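Narrative of activities, Objective 1.

The group set out to show that a structural description can be obtained from nothing but a protein's sequence at a throughput compatible with the screening campaign. Below is one input-output pair from the validation batch, recorded exactly as produced.
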Amino acid sequence: MATAFSSDGEAALRRALGPAAAAAAAPRGDLDGFYEMGRAAAFVRGGAFRKVALQFPDELLADAAAVAARMEAATGAEMYILGDTTYGSCCVDEVAAEHVGAEALVHYGPACLSPCRKLPVLHIFGRQPLDVERCMEVFRELYPDQQSCVVVLSDVVYAHAMGELEQQLHQEYPNVVFSRVACGDPTSPARPGEVRQFGRQFTVEAPGGLQDYAMFYVGAEGLALTSFMLTWNRCPFSSFDPATGCGRRETFNVNRALMRRLYLVERARDAGVVGILVGTLGVAGYLTVLQHLRELLHRAGKRSYTLAVGKPNPTKLANFLEVDIFVLVACAQNSLLDSSDFYRPVVTPYELELACNPAREWTGNYLTDFRDLLPGACAHVELPLAVRAEEAVPDVSLITGEMRALRLCDSLAPQLSPSAALACRDQTRAVAEISPAASFLESRSWRGLEQQLGKTPVSKAVQGRRGIAIAYEDEGREES
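Output recorded for this entry:
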């Protein structure tokens, strides 16, 4: 009998197998156009690559075999299909590509455009159709003043149509700025007024800078739009969804979302043990930010543990009860994890810096790209000098109401004093090193199944139930 929390599973066993509905997003009759086979083949031939990895998101895997066969016929190279990536499908999975010895990688579908470290990468976003005329109509309704200053952003799957939209809009709106998709790290220094974030580049010329512009996003609601709105939270947003042909002014409560994120900052200040979640192995600089977070937590007097759990979910993270809060190192789109259902909160590296670095202050600008925090980046803030305990400024937790001291210790000081780092293990005078994690695990207890040998009375064997677990043979007679 089905309940609100479970079912008997019979429907799943009897369900007929068929192609996934999401896999039909790609037009099967136009594989060459949708997957830009000519450009991908030119990339492989131009680099003389002999082994190439083709990375597909789940919704495009149905076309993977056909695309790989055509690529092999066009280039003569070996193609390896990557599916079920360890982390977000928007990130390039260099680790899986290295397992097959791939010399290059072609990434299909939506992408976060985070720069990679090792392999040459070509992004094929997929050419989703865009009704330019309808998009123009929506833009006119949302911005009746033709002198409006607007920045046009788009999902990467509609980037191919932005040139046509730009030509038509500039005939009526002279102050409209279009962003360009930029894969990889730009090598040239940014010019005055130039913005480079989320794999997009554009230049604003208004005297007040970016905050004098409105934002018009072409694409469906999702993580990309949420990241844009939190980062550029001083700009009003509107959007056009090509799938529905509808436009709207975005009513996402940015202030409420920021209040939630700042609450997590306060939780991070109270935390004593922090788990660093490795949410990417391909974004350039992830090892540097891991070391930076360990140093930050060490100087803040907090213990840290680095965990590689793949895609985080409440069940996985509930295994680490000793951790007070987690920090997720991932790409800009996947770092904003909604942890309301998690046993412990999950924060971003920027939020952890707000909590542990006294020199960093909240300015109203939110950062989702962890590379902005690294030395030499635009938003890097040096850690201040160590403060002695008697000179630490007292602070009151806004959550627990308890006193706490916000200070940084010396970066070279050990977390445990030499006299407390080693302890006598037993009466044989064996010496063991004290581990906070091991001490916590020793306090856990789980007995499991107790055999109760000699205490259970002996009984004769009886006929058991027959059938499979979801439908025993006697279940129908019992109900009747």
